[in-house]
Amino acid sequence: MTKADLIVGIQWGDEGKGKIVDMLSQNYDLVCRSGGGHNAGHTIWVNGVKYALHLIPSGILHPNIINIIGNGVVVNPEALIEEMSQFENLQGRFYISDRAHLNLTHHSLIDQAKERLKGDKAIGTTGKGIGPAYADKISRTGHRVGELLNPKELSENLISDFESNRAYLDALGVKIPSKDELYQKLSSFKEALEPYIADTTQILWSAMDENKKILLEGAQGTLLDIDHGTYPYVTSSNTISAGACTGLGLSPKSIGNVIGILKAYTTRVGNGAFPTQDSGKDGDTMCEVGKEYGTTTGRRRRCGWLDAVAVRYASRLNGVDSYALMKLDVLDGFKSVKICKAYKYKGEIIDYMPSNLDEVTPIYEELDGWDSISGIRNYDDLPQNAKIYIKRIEELTGVRVSIISTSPERSDTILR
Ligand code: IMP
């Protein structure tokens, strides 16, 4: 039986997973998503055509690959249907788990209202209803994709949920739809999605029994994990590799190679601790050169230096075998580059990530910069200082860098 290879973000998301999944997926028969929702997003260009993906796995761009949205994902039918409209002939190569939970309009409205009420304590969510949808799942008050097949019953159940939460929804200013309005909407979702709703666990297990090659595409990043990230400034799912097991129905023994996607510097969108953030001109340069604006919300990402302490922590949590080092070219032209190798915490020097990052101060090591690596495709052609930077990342984290990305182009990639 084959094992499934996994791609996981090592920082706060936006590490450049899209390029690597797109590049590697041609070697796989199935590409699967296990968690998150339409808060995730990446843009992929193929032959001059732009595709925006939020829920559908990137394997969709290759016609022979089967793509699965697993049970751990929260699915917004409206967003999904719009995304599906970019593609033709999805039948037979795209499936949505009937166990995945629904993320409906009221979830987004609750998310946005709660964020507004939090004021300067807001998490800075994407406003896509992710937290409320997962909260319903965990409270056992959620509804699953399979229920879309009976829109009459689902609309009745939802109306009864709304009635029992009327005071709460009114206080948040969330408008309750009429039963008829809801029924019409759910019926249209059924019509569009029915051919794709399936028991994806069985599809995946059969594929494994047939020795098909499977790639698991992580969403968001490790430091946004609900259990291991910078709580409460996190997303509401398990973004680490273990989440791929629960989110797809795989045993831990089914996971093969784990590739950590690591950006050569750090970014974070939304609020929460970020020890190595650079609020000066270096951070601005990273933002402008790296085009660090969110694909889902357009927000400007906060930027800063590589945090090897956080990266080491994230790599161990995920069981990372090797890194794909992304956007190394964004650091071109810096006179020197910094890596955080330890933290000062409560008067002590520590080399691990504590549960609260608010009180840590980064301790940096400074390395000489390089002129340009943009577009280089052979490791030997890299300038010496870029090689030293890579080597230092490997020494500080204990993980080998096996892929280096030197521009957004698919082919500007070094394989070691
Ligand atoms: P939520 O997932 O919309 O609830 O947002 C919670 C936190 O996760 C916020 O800081 C978001 O900016 C962040 N977040 C969610 N999805 C992504 C992503 O795909 N990339 C980067 N950050 C994300």
From TrEMBL:
Pathway given in the UniProt record: Purine metabolism; AMP biosynthesis via de novo pathway; AMP from IMP: step 1/2
Swiss-Prot/TrEMBL cofactor(s): Mg(2+)
Transmembrane segments: none
Binding site for Mg(2+): D14, G41
Keywords: Cytoplasm, GTP-binding, Ligase, Magnesium, Metal-binding, Nucleotide-binding, Purine biosynthesis
Note accompanying the cofactor annotation: Binds 1 Mg(2+) ion per subunit.
Superkingdom per UniProt: Bacteria
Main location: cytoplasm
List of residues binding IMP: D14, E15, G16, K17, N39, A40, G41, H42, T126, R140, Q220, T235, R299
Catalyzed reactions: IMP + L-aspartate + GTP = N(6)-(1,2-dicarboxyethyl)-AMP + GDP + phosphate + 2 H(+)
Record-listed E.C. numbers: 6.3.4.4
Function: Plays an important role in the de novo pathway of purine nucleotide biosynthesis. Catalyzes the first committed step in the biosynthesis of AMP from IMP.
Protein name: Adenylosuccinate synthetase
Organism for this UniProt entry: Campylobacter lanienae
